[in-house]
Specification:
heterodimer, A: about 180 residues, mainly alpha, 2 domains, three-stranded antiparallel β-sheet, 3 strands, B: about 90 residues, alpha+beta, four-stranded antiparallel β-sheet, about 20% strand, globular
Chain lengths: ~180, ~90
């Protein structure tokens, strides 16, 4: 899991990190609060979010369970991935620059990484070929009902074209705001 | 949020801490001993699952069963003695 300073996080590492709610909360809290915090305070704030009670009304058990979970499990894992620095002596947890890699995977917009415009363009091209083929077929099989050939109807090809335009404009409308990792 | 978390890793840490008579802070990270997300996934409310995971941690033999039972015994005694601590 350890990686050199120059390499960015792999998608597998990012999704593994984000697969746990407490690790997401650590990232969320650090992002919201200047990027560094004491271990005890972090545990208190996360326990407060988890249990939906104000931090000063937490039971010691609620606080302790989150503390142990962070200390024994999640912070070592995040430190191993170089997304946080964790100083055991001072108990200070800090976000590292590498944590920025995670932001690429967290956007509020619906912009897809899949090239839908290209996908629909291909469908239009493929649909055109089929239309020629179906027309040839229909001239040979005149008694075939229209409905059975409906899926290759040229009207649908125009439909693909329209969808291409819609998908493209939808992609353009998205903005690049980052979301909160919780 | 307010949901109940399984926290089997916390139970393991606390059980080992109790058995050794040492504070949890003094124990090595549990994540060095086992893939903790995987351990979380072992525990389930589904009674048709019958899974037990065994690993060594902080000089102890740890057994975690899918019904969230945790057994801990010293490594040297694990072959002959029955577990001496359970939750």
């Amino acid at each position: 899991m350890s990686s050199s300073d120059t390499e960015s996080l792999t998608p597998d590492s990012v999704f593994e990190l984000l697969s746990n709610h407490r690790r997401r909360m650590v990232l969320y809290y650090l992002r919201r609060n200047g990027g560094s915090v004491g271990m005890q305070e972090l545990a208190k704030q996360i326990a407060s979010m988890e249990n939906d009670v104000p931090a000063d009304e937490l039971t010691s058990q609620q606080r302790k369970r989150v503390y142990v979970s962070l200390y024994q499990t999640h912070l070592p894992k995040m430190a191993e991935m170089d997304t946080i620095d964790y100083d055991k002596e001072s108990g200070i947890v800090r976000l590292t620059e590498r944590a920025d890699d995670i932001d690429e995977y967290l956007t509020t917009n619906d912009r897809s990484t899949y090239p839908w415009t290209f996908h629909y363009l291909l469908l239009v091209i493929a649909g055109g070929d089929r239309a020629v083929f179906v027309r040839a077929g229909r001239s040979r099989l005149r008694r075939r009902p229209d409905a059975s050939a409906g899926c290759w109807n040229p009207r649908h090809i125009r439909g693909f074209g329209r969808r291409t335009v819609l998908a493209d404009s939808k992609q353009r409308r998205g903005d690049s705001d980052r979301t909160e990792p919780v | 949020m307010g949901s109940v978390h399984k926290d089997i890793c916390v139970t393991v840490s606390e059980t080992v801490s109790d058995a050794l008579g040492e504070p949890v802070d003094a124990l090595p990270p549990l994540s060095d001993a086992i893939h903790t997300d995987g351990l979380d996934a072992v525990v389930t409310n589904d009674r048709s699952h019958d899974v037990t995971v065994t690993f060594s941690y902080a000089g102890m033999r740890v057994l975690v069963h899918s019904d969230s039972t945790v057994y801990v015994c010293p490594l040297r005694a694990s072959r002959t003695d029955s577990p001496d601590t359970y939750v």
